[in-house]
Amino acid sequence: MSPASQSRSLIVDACQYCNWSELILRQLVEGRVSAITVTIAYHEDFRETVEHLVDWNRRFERHGDLIVPGRSAGDIDTAAQSGRTAVFFALQNCSPIEDDIGLLQILHQLGVRVMQLTYNNQSLLGAGCYEPVDGGITRMGREVIAEMNRLGFLIDMSHSGERSTLEAIAASQRPIAITHANPHWWRPAVRNKSDAVLKALADSGGMLGLSLYPHHLKDGSACAVTSFAEMAARLADEIGVDHIGIGSDLCQDQPDSVVFWMRDGRWTKTTQAGAGAKAGEGFPPQPHWFRDNRDWPHIRAALIEAGFSVTDADKVMGGNWRRFYGDAFAVGV
Amino acid sequence: MSPASQSRSLIVDACQYCNWSELILRQLVEGRVSAITVTIAYHEDFRETVEHLVDWNRRFERHGDLIVPGRSAGDIDTAAQSGRTAVFFALQNCSPIEDDIGLLQILHQLGVRVMQLTYNNQSLLGAGCYEPVDGGITRMGREVIAEMNRLGFLIDMSHSGERSTLEAIAASQRPIAITHANPHWWRPAVRNKSDAVLKALADSGGMLGLSLYPHHLKDGSACAVTSFAEMAARLADEIGVDHIGIGSDLCQDQPDSVVFWMRDGRWTKTTQAGAGAKAGEGFPPQPHWFRDNRDWPHIRAALIEAGFSVTDADKVMGGNWRRFYGDAFAVGV
Q: I want to staple B49 with a disulfide (CB 3.0 to 4.6 A). Which of B41, B84, B207, B238 is the partner?
């Protein structure tokens, strides 16, 4: 295969947090998913994050026939050529670096390639999207952005507040990503993004991963795939197809205790609402057209039905992330 | 330069623990030392060890004109060709892996390439050389040896008891090292090694790094370089020149508090004796012919004076470690 035809046929998902099992890894391969970026930590500190990395090292050792470590964009091609899935690591919060900027390079050495500066709440680096006040990027936040730029460590602002997001886009020397969110105009959820953010993101060369998490979808779990695809088509007209990919936020086989961990961490003793869910509500049902990693063809077909050319549909399905990761993870830029 | 001539001219020191400064790094370059293996931890747990790795990441970033990260043996050649020093990382104890075998791969990913299974005392893996009873390699010790073999993580038994050392040599699928010790027949110190250990080490393809730490030397700080070189010559006759290198144990510019940390860690509330020193004694003075990294020519000259050919002297000075590291750190063997 030529690089161009590879790029057209890639499926890349920029955000998954499944309850990993051999079953799910086999579904990834069956679904011809060439790369996923998996969440390693939400509220974990450094030491706890390392234990999750130990678990992944063991998965790579045991399931080398199904998955390969994702470190640079070329690993996506390696995976695609050998019928496996490249697994990249992401942090949804900065808690794993604690208050030590040196832990960024340590985590990068351990294979982590993406980090959100905030997760819903105020962090040491910026404000999350549920904070009543967003004071923007902090002093340490600016240092961390510069260090992430140096290392080739992708900045993700999916769960950040508006001001913090705009300031991160402006402060970063490299384009950033919002790996899993949708336009606010399609579903007015706190987690979905304003026109101002989407425009600034695309204008700076960044990427939006469209989310398939029901609370981010119009009509929630009942959302039609045609509605999703039409949203993507309108967004492509607005910000350009080259800036759109998918970050499904798939949380397959997770017990509800996990969504409470995501929302509540250890920062509260009460049960919080989040992402359109009332306090105490568990994971919403997946839309029927995206239950696991064998369902990607439904989305591709809907994109083409909604007016995307085959070339553009394949950009959204994975080609754009492949291109973007190539720049985002390159060292010595 | 051909690989052969490179190999002849290399200086490699398998054990240093200096109080690192730009001054010392410049002395390494001035002394044309192509590689050193530095101690990262004695009694530190994983998290503390990571902070030392953070410090080294910063040194590599700031002093890229002087040092390069040592990960594989080829980095020694890279350093030699560019007039810099490759810095490899070693642990003198297994405390950094705590009771988690998965931390071996994590530390390997962070660049660590050598680990002692024990440091003077009983560890989770085996017995140290000061324990009254040496029960040999433990259950976890056997698992760790197998995992180190898989990763290309060199086993070092410098501070281990006799039985544990012999059992590690037998259990390991790869040759092991004793990176810093001398023959017991030359200086009968607890830390120096018996004929049985030296023979088993060499017969299995292992390496001994001759120590320049005064308590390991005949006549201590007053040891003559001729005595050291004559010891090396006799040892080469006994076990073969290909199994001998140098591990100086240089602790330049360290305050005495560091030697108390080495001996006492946090395992005792009292002050211990160690390596020929009485309790409470600080670092001994260096022999006048090896005060810092500009003094290597004195040793090479003495080796040739003691009867080594130039070829064999250069093997001892660094060529043997270069060859041995090539096998020891190779992955997928």
A: B41
ipTM of this complex: 0.92
Whether residue A33 contacts residue A293, with contact meaning beta carbons closer than 8 Å, is answered with: yes
Cβ–Cβ under 8 Å, residues B13 and B248: yes
**Does residue A210 contact residue A232 with C-beta atoms inside 8 Å?**
yes
As a whole number of angstroms, the distance between CA B103 and CA B124 comes to 14
- Alpha-carbon distance B110 to nearest alpha carbon in chain A (angstroms): 6
State the Cα–Cα distance between residues B226 and B237, nearest whole angstrom.
Answer: 17
Mean pLDDT of A21-36: 98
Neighboring chain A residues of B50 at a CB cutoff of 8 Å: 46, 103, 106
pTM given for the model: 0.94
Is residue B6's pLDDT more than 50?
no
8 Å CB contact of B57 and A103: no
How many residue pairs from chains A and B have C-beta atoms closer than 8 A?
Answer: 43
Longest distance between any two alpha carbons in chain B, whole Å? 55
Burial class of B99 by CB neighbour count within 10 A (0 to 12, 13 to 18, 19+): exposed
The 10s digit of each residue's pLDDT in A259-311 is: 999 999 999 999 998 888 888 899 999 999 999 999 999 999 999 999 999 99
Kindly list the residues from chain B whose CB atom is less than 8 angstroms away from the CB atom of residue A54. 100, 102-103, 105-106
Q: Which of A46, A54, A100 sits opposite B100 (nearest CB)?
A: A54
Distance (Å, whole) CA B223 – CA B217: 6
The shortest C-alpha distance from B47 to chain A (Å) reads: 7
In this predicted model, what pLDDT tens digit does every residue of B312-326 receive, in sequence order? 999 999 999 999 999
Mutation target to probe the A interface, by most A beta carbons within 10 A, among B60, B89, B106, B147 is B106
